Amino acid sequence: MATVQKSVIASFMGTLAAGCLLLIALLVQEGAAVPISSHCRLDKANFQQPYITNRTFMLAKEASLADNNTDVRLIGEKLFHGVHMSEHCYLMKQVLNFTLVEVLLPQSDRFQPYMQEVVPFLDRLSNKLSQCHIQGNDQHIQTNVQKLKDTVKKLGEIGEIKAIGELGLLFMALRNACV
Ligand SMILES: *[C@@H]1O[C@H](CO)[C@@H](O)[C@H](O)[C@H]1NC(C)=O
Ligand SMILES: *[C@@H]1O[C@H](CO)[C@@H](O)[C@H](O)[C@H]1NC(C)=O
Ligand SMILES: *[C@@H]1O[C@H](CO)[C@@H](O)[C@H](O)[C@H]1NC(C)=O
Question: Could you say which residues form the signal peptide (predicted)?
Answer without folding.
Answer: 1-33
